[in-house]
Specification:
single chain; ABC1_dom; UbiB_kinase; 4 domains; transmembrane helix; alpha+beta; AarF/UbiB family protein; transmembrane
Length: about 650
């Protein structure tokens, strides 16, 4: 074969393969990947001859001396074409059932992720050795012993804390977050994990200086008038240096540790995979919803790695009004993803406060945080003593805005009603407000929940009660009644739990419950003041006025219709477009199934019938030829239904259908 002929044959063959792939995909009415569709058509083209021979052989030997009638020839041609298209359709449906899209990475993706897989495998090995060294191996496999006594829980909690400390920054942060989730973990684990610290040795200046120069756009000596190379403090994510701008203003420079982003990225991927494994293999993992916890933790720690988010958080909290608490202002033009420059607050550690200052500072801090949570909706989510300073004027300064919570108006309103109902000791109001804060289960026993909350308030709202035990008992009620706390509300409880320890450090014996109830009373007084009530009434009237103007005409129209016997009600079924699409798709599948089954039954009947005009001499009758065609048509229809059944909905499809 000469070259032009080879090129022509190759072009025709490629065109036939593309037409075959297009026809198979259109008949299945399901979008497949281009590579998968082309491969199925290519295999079908190669297998066509070997598969058509036995099929045509069932028609019996044909007499070459007798030319078949035109209709029979057309039927035979249609049968060959449909069998030809049926082969890639069957291959695509089989691949959809055995190897769904996304279950096997493509060649480019596999090559791109090979290096990451090797690196993650080394990190897996390190973490596994750490876990085994601390005696956690059986628990990772879901085979650990069930611990009923307190001593066993304490022993396991200490092992977990040691493993998290040895695991590095990501796992230390994970333990710190878990230490605030009294609704998920026993008290022994909460207490032990609360001792985790992420104070580490500072990175050497030789590694910090190039990063600062790259992020600030020039050498440190040119950007700043003065810069202290000895860190003021160092943590696992970053370290802090003192500097002075050319304007004379004293600032603090927070710089991220070089290479910490890559380490945290690998560790977050491992945390997500471990959570998925434990949720799939263990009962306690499923009950805690470990995958959702891991996703929320990953989002929070990624925000901490972007200092631009912290600068925006700082500005948002400062804009809400600090009152007796001060915040450092960021120097926006000098802030980047890995460097944060902010105003320096002058003062000492808050633990240096005198016994006389302690109660006032504790009240100021509690009032500040409650106002951030309930009124402003932007709050500091980690108010531990290390993030507080006693300023030179005797007031508090709040630092480190890497962890900030945000609440929308509806959640803030529900939390306000919750606190005010707690202040009134109103079980019904507390129950209603709580069910607005958390997702409401369908089968919740509201009267029982109301009684449990009433007993809870009778037990804990008396003077001198332990606030830590109060939080623990509230989380027990939430867990017993199957209520799940949203991440933004969990951040509130995390902040309050951290705040409780800080308040005790500032003022031993501080009555958190009493002061919170006092804040609720003051807030209620503010809400019912003449100006506030007048403004609220004006807003409500403005919202209701358009409806009130239309109301008389609508009432008159309804009354007139009722008087003349024309009053009726219309109910539109399937008014939602999503419902119509679902029902239409279901009807299509049912119709295809019925048509496929009918064609199959008719094919069997015709193939089993005797007699009839001969279509393909000497033995194949017209009825049999029609039966073979109906059998192939039935197979095509069944494959189309199977393709829709095996096709797993993609995330984008789910998102579109939920809109």
């Amino acid at each position: 074969m000469d070259l032009p002929t080879a090129v022509f044959v190759s072009g025709v063959t490629l065109l036939m393969i593309l037409l075959l792939a297009t026809a198979a995909q259109r008949l299945l009415d399901v979008r497949f990947g281009a590579f998968r569709t082309f491969l199925a058509a290519l295999l079908a083209f190669g297998l066509a001859q070997s598969m058509l021979e036995p099929i045509l052989g069932t028609l019996g030997p044909m007499d070459a001396t007798q030319e078949p009638p035109g209709a029979a020839a057309l039927g035979l041609l249609l049968l060959v074409v449909m069998v030809f298209v049926l082969i890639p359709m069957a291959l695509l449906v089989l691949a959809e059932a055995l190897v769904p899209p996304g279950s096997v990475p493509g060649p480019l993706e596999a090559a791109r992720s090979l290096r990451g897989r090797l690196s993650r495998a080394r990190r897996y090995s390190q973490i596994t050795r750490v876990a085994i060294r601390h005696g956690l191996g059986p628990y990772l496999r879901g085979r650990g012993e069930r611990l009923e006594d307190r001593s066993g829980k304490l022993r396991l909690a200490r092992s977990l804390r040691g493993a998290l400390e040895d695991g590095g920054v990501t796992f230390v942060k994970l333990g710190q977050v878990l230490s605030t989730r009294r609704d998920l973990l026993p008290a022994e684990f909460v207490e032990e994990l609360g001792r985790l610290q992420d104070q580490v040795a500072p990175a050497p200046w030789e590694r910090i200086e190039p990063l600062l120069a790259r992020e600030l756009g020039g050498p440190v000596e040119e950007v700043f008038a003065e810069f202290d190379r000895t860190p003021l403090a160092a943590a696992s994510i970053g370290q802090v240096h003192v500097a002075r701008l050319h304007s004379g203003e004293s600032v603090v420079v927070k710089v991220q540790r070089p290479g910490i982003g890559a380490v945290v990225g690998k560790d977050l991927d491992i945390v997500r995979r471990l959570a998925a494994t434990l949720e799939a293999r263990t009962r306690w993992g499923r009950s805690l919803g470990l995958i959702d916890l891991a996703d929320g933790f990953a989002a929070a720690i990624r925000e901490e790695l972007d200092f631009r988010v912290e600068a925006a958080n700082m500005a948002a909290v400062a804009a809400s009004g600090g009152g007796p608490v001060s915040y450092p202002a960021p120097i926006g033009a000098m802030c980047s993803e890995r460097v944060l420059v902010m105003q320096r607050l002058s003062g000492t550690a808050v633990t240096a406060a005198s016994a006389e200052q302690g109660p006032r500072l504790a009240r100021d801090l509690l009032d500040c945080l409650l106002r951030q949570i309930l009124v402003e909706g932007v709050f500091h989510a980690d108010p531990h003593p290390g993030n507080l300073m006693l300023l030179e004027d005797g007031t508090l300064g709040l630092l480190d805005f890497g962890s900030v919570g945000r609440l929308d108006g509806s959640v803030r309103s529900a939390l306000q009603r919750f606190l005010l109902a707690m202040n009134r000791q109103d079980p019904l109001g507390v129950t209603d407000a709580l069910l607005e804060v958390v997702p409401r289960p369908e089968d919740i026993d509201e009267p029982a929940l109301e009684r449990a909350l009433g007993q809870f308030m009778a037990k804990h709202l008396a003077p001198g009660m332990d606030s830590v035990q109060m939080f623990t008992d509230l989380f027990k009620i939430v867990s017993e009644y199957g209520l799940s706390i949203p991440p933004e509300v969990a951040a509130v409880f995390r902040a309050l739990a951290t705040l409780e320890g800080t308040l005790v450090r500032l003022s031993p014996g501080f009555n958190l419950i009493g002061e919170a109830r006092s804040f609720a009373g003051r807030y209620l007084a503010e809400q019912i003041g003449p100006d506030t009530v007048r403004e609220t009434v004006a807003q409500e009237v403005a919202a209701l006025l358009p409806m009130l103007r239309r109301l008389p005409r609508r009432v008159e129209r309804i009354a007139s219709a009722a008087e003349h016997g024309r009053f009726s009600m219309n109910v539109r079924l399937l008014a939602d477009e999503r419902d119509r699409r679902f029902v239409t798709g279901l009807l299509h599948q049912v119709l295809l199934t019925v048509l496929g089954a009918t064609a199959g039954v008719m094919a069997v009947v015709l193939l089993g019938s005797e007699g009839g005009p001969v279509a393909l001499p000497p033995t194949t009758t017209l009825f049999q030829l029609i039966g073979y065609n109906l059998l192939v048509i039935s197979s095509i229809l069944v494959l189309r239904v199977l393709a829709l059944i095996f096709r797993r909905p993609r995330a984008s499809d789910d998102q579109r259908s939920s809109r």
